[in-house]
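Data availability (excerpt). The following record was deposited with the supplementary files.
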Amino acid sequence: MIKAKKSLGQNFLKDDAVLQRIIESANLSKNDVVIEIGPGHGVLTELLARKCKKVIAIELDDRLIEMLRNKLRNKENVEIIHNDILKINLPELVSKYEIQDTRYKTVANIPYYITAPIIRLLLETKIPPSEMILMVQKEVAERICAKAGEMSILAVSVQYYAQPEYLFTVPKTAFDPMPKVDSAVIRIVTSNQQPVISKKNNRDFFRVVRAGFSAKRKTLVNNLANGLQLDKKTVEEKLIAFGFSKNTRAQELGVEDWQKLIEFL
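Predicted structure:
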């Protein structure tokens, strides 16, 4: 068995019960196409292949490619691609396999050190997956699924595009090698969540959000005034008119609050 490579953040899932719960959570049908990121030893890939039309498994580690192709050689609906998910042309891949009309799902045990870039790629790509079932660090899962009052820039960024849901916790003992922290499986649903969002709207939205979260210990008034180079008194007046107090902090606002706030600034 090929050992995990620390530099790639590999922790191979070995718990059969957890694997089965992931499959059940994905709600797969024979018409579904799944893009799996980081198939590792292919244990989840095999289970996915039994449930859906096609599995496109993208693996960066060149040590695993031959093993995966041999292991899954009898699975005609599995395609192993040797590439880096962060460098691959995802719209081109989706177009190549003609899945842009039927949509697709993503299933992944994401390396923790690149969780945010992968999620951002999947959310902002031209043709995003309709659903993602992702294994991430438990603390990150809780942050992504947070509600107004405990929001972070990560939570706002994900919830701007989609609806995340915390599904279940996975203990660190379910992996080999065992990581230092527990994990969690989340579902992120992108279909029918947002109207078509222009690049300009994206820039405006995240420019204000980044300013709002720029200093955790400071109030929203201070952060927006400093980050956007606006008059502090003017920002304070607009926030009060909007229904917030001058002591409001960024974590208290939900996505809809940020969207409305942009119109005031």
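Summary of structural features: The CA atoms of residues 37 and 253 lie 32 Å apart.
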